[in-house]
Amino acid sequence: MPLKIPPATQSKFAKLGIRTPFDLVLHLPLRYEDETKITRVADLVPGESAQVEGEIIHSEVMFRPRRSLVCQLQDDSGILYLRFLNFYPSQQKQLAVGKRIRALGEPRMGFFGDEMVHPKCRNAGESTPLKQALTPVYPTTAGLPQLTLTKHIHAALNELQLDDTLPEQIRQRLRLPEFEPSVKLLHQPPPDTDEDALLARAHPAWMRIKFDELLAQQLSMRVHYRERSRRVAPKLGAHNKFTDGLLKDLPFALTGAQKKVWHEISADLSRPHPMQRLLQGDVGSGKTVVAALAALQAIENGYQAAFMAPTEILAEQHYLKLRDWLAPLGIEPVWLTGSLKKKDKTAAAERIASGETMLAIGTHALFQTTIEFKKLGLVIVDEQHKFGVQQRLALRGKGTTLLPPVRGKAGMGVESSSTHTSTPTLPDGTTSQSTRPANNASQVAGYLQGRGSYEPHQLMMSATPIPRTLAMSYYADLDVSVIDELPPGRTPIVTKLVSDARREEVFERVRVACLEGRQAYWVCPLIDESEALQLQTALETFATLTQIFPELRIGLAHGKLSSAEKAATMAAFKAGELQLLVATTVIEVGVDVPNASLMVIDHAERMGLAQLHQLRGRVGRGAAESMCVLLFQKPLSELARARLKIIFENTDGFEIAQQDLRLRGPGELLGARQSGVPMLRFADLAEDDKLLDKARDIADEMLRDFPDAAQGHLQRWMANEPDYLRT
Ligand code: ADP
Ligand code: MG
After folding, report:
1. Contact 726, 714 (CB under 8 A)
2. In a domain? residue 665
3. Which domain holds residue 114?
4. What are the CA-CA distances from residue 155 to residues 21, 145, 180 (Å)?
5. Do 510 and 399 have their domain in common?
């Protein structure tokens, strides 16, 4: 190590994400102070930071409007007031009458005239030289002064080898500056640097850093993508026995988009390498039937399929639907969730282990240590976004894949390696030691380790449309199929924004819709702070609505019901026995009741865009004209207003997601904020899409033609990332 961070301050540096000397190099300034020139007092522009130099001609502690030190600094053009609300005796001494001072700050019209509040002051002799570079201001943390940070960064810049990881011909083709001059410029920009371009991160030096960051990410994802073709999965060819049977029995024909994605999936399944495909399609686009077809192709080949959903309500709905669809084919799925009675769970587990059942449908309980599949060929994960991108990546990083490799031998005679064999590998030699808290991810991961002779194929489904740039970044290790068409005969949903003051009118709409034979959802306000409060709110809403609509049959669904109760309520609603369903956001994903045509979302201003879009997607599934009423409470925050406007103006999930990316950044969108998936620090996926396109192409080119350079680049940028983001 060319330089060391003193142990005493290591934790402070760690807070800033600085663990290695190279991290110091990438700790880039937030902004700059210009101490390279002196501005005359008469030329100061309010609001524009500047440095002045002059003599203190007056200095006094004043008590009005409040206690403060007020000095007058004079140069040959005028007088500027310097004002300090908190000050030390030493400052008072420094700013005594007769002293020559350089003051840097933002001038404004003040109480006394032109003034700077809390300017940065230093003594100036006749010959004090001006700075040769803009002074960087770094993001820092308490107890770590700018000066200390700056000193360490400069040491790192001077002592580290910062040679280029980009092959020269590629660098020139992209017209990017070299790495070392780029970082040096960003840390110490010469006086003539275009400061606006620096601040807007549009300067060529910034472009280089952003490109390198995107390239590292693309390399890591593409390495994973390529590595998959070395792993082994059963060949599940298309025999079109059960699949054709289902297609023949369905009351509808597949849309063109469904056919297209089904062919993509079917082709993947028949290859001897694990499919890892993301099936994207807006709410209501008809992903479930595609999943059923995929399961049937596995079953045709004598392999089991597992279908996992994030909530019990959704899992049960899939179970009921597939049970009906597959009954004529003589296939009987088994149902498994955590809340089953022990006896039933054991029975289900036995049918799965013996291979008596070919299709298991359920929640995460499907992948607990006690569940063993006889011959698992395909895993389907619905509403994959609910599981979070970091969970997916973390599991992938375990060396195998998202979900279980299988114990059975399956007559393949090929052992797949459970360690990484990818090029390029990082020479850190460590094995993954996840310090992640025990969550579903590590639970499944634990299940994976050290087992298996082959991997099942995986189909991940998501209705959360991912903006293109985000998909390219965080899903670049997957193949993606998109259903970009809704089944015919849907009438567009009308969205209404209604202030809470007009609640009565909304009640009337609910009454009319239900009395006309249609059904409605009433979604209770979201209470983030406490589950108990959330429950209480749901109960109160239910009580109130029961009073308001004595003539309606009303049900209540919330997360605290037992699964039997939940299931009974959903079944009754589906059968039309209940007319109005009061529910918490447990119905957010996947619930499908075509006769429901009115959705009321109470306190819509509390919900996120993706959530609103999902909820709204619960209606508009049948032929009747559907409406979604967003009830909101005033006053609206800026963000809430922006969200409601977007959801009001757009029905296309992709457009909504794109706007959401602008509004909230990628962390939230990926469901990754809390769990700390490292996001891009420099590049901005909403702004830098062209750079990302280039990074994607160059990543493939480098892996093909310059593997050493690719490895060097990953080493430089990813050494510090969690295992699963490296390679
Ligand atoms: P999602 O993609 O949101 O999971 P679903 O699979 O739940 O959507 O499908 C929504 C509804 O559309 C279901 O009632 C389903 O049976 C129906 N559906 C699916 N495909 C078609 C089609 N090609 N034509 C008509 N209805 C369809
Ligand atoms: Mg669905």
Report:
1. yes
2. no
3. 37-130
4. 9, 16, 14
5. no
Q: Which of 612, 630, 650 is the last residue of a domain?
A: 650
Please identify, by atom number, the ligand 1 atom nearest to the C-alpha of residue 254. 23
Instruction: Report the nearest-CA residue for atom 18 of ligand 1.
Output: 286
- Same-domain status, 267 and 402: yes
Query: Best of 278, 289, 383 to mutate for ligand 1, by most ligand atoms within 8 A of CB?
Result: 289
Domain count, the chain: 3
Residue 451: per-residue pLDDT: 44
Give the residue ranges of DSSP H helices in 304-341: 312-326
Whether 390 and 504 map to the same domain: the answer is no
Give the span between the Cα atoms of 405 and 449, in whole angstroms. Answer: 9
Residue 298 located in a structural domain? yes
Q: For 687-705, b where at least 16 C-beta lie within 10 A, e where not — what string? A: ebeebbebbbebbeebbee
Nearest CA to ligand 1 atom 19: 286
- At residue 317, the pLDDT reads 86
Locate 9 and state its tokens: 């301050």
pLDDT at 679: 65
In a domain, 234, yes or no: no
Residue 549 domain flag: yes
Q: Whose Cα sits closest to atom 9 in ligand 1? A: 286
Domain with residue 109: its CATH number is 2.40.50.140
Closest residue (by CA) to atom 22 of ligand 1? 487
Which residues does ligand 1 sit against, CB inside 6 Å?
252, 254-255, 258, 281, 283-289, 463, 487, 590, 592, 594, 621
Q: Which atom of ligand 1 is nearest to the CA of 255?
A: 23
Write down the pLDDT at residue 356: 95
Beta strands in 204-321 (DSSP E): 276-281, 304-308
CATH number of residue 365's parent domain = 3.40.50.300
**pLDDT at residue number 278:** 92
Which stretch of DSSP H or E encloses residue 597?
strand 596-601
How many angstroms does the Cα of residue 524 sit away from the middle of ligand 1? 26
CA pair distance 721, 220, nearest whole angstrom? 11
Flag residues of the chain having pLDDT under 50: 1-2, 397-451, 672-678, 724-727
Cis (ω within 30 of 0) for the bond into 234? no
The rounded distance, in Å, linking the Cα atoms of 716 and 219 is 12
Whether residue 414 contacts residue 453, with contact meaning beta carbons closer than 8 Å, is answered with yes
Q: Are residues 403 and 517 in the same domain?
A: no
Q: Specify whether the CB–CB gap between 194 and 186 falls below 8 A.
A: no
- pTM, entire model: 0.69
Q: Is the peptide bond before 635 cis (omega within 30 degrees of 0)?
A: yes
Residues 6+ apart with CB under 8 A from 35: 51, 102, 104, 130, 131, 134, 135
Whole-number pLDDT of residue 411: 30
The torsion defined by the Cα of 603, 606, 609 and 614, in degrees rounded to 10, comes to -50
Answer whether 384's CB lies under 8 Å from 461's CB. yes
| Neighbour-count burial of 133, counting CB atoms closer than 10 A to its CB (0-12 exposed, 13-18 middle, 19+ buried) | middle
Last residue of a domain, one of 445, 463, 481: 463
Q: Specify whether 516 is located in the same domain as 390.
A: no
Question: What is residue 446's predicted lDDT score, i.e. its pLDDT?
Answer: 35
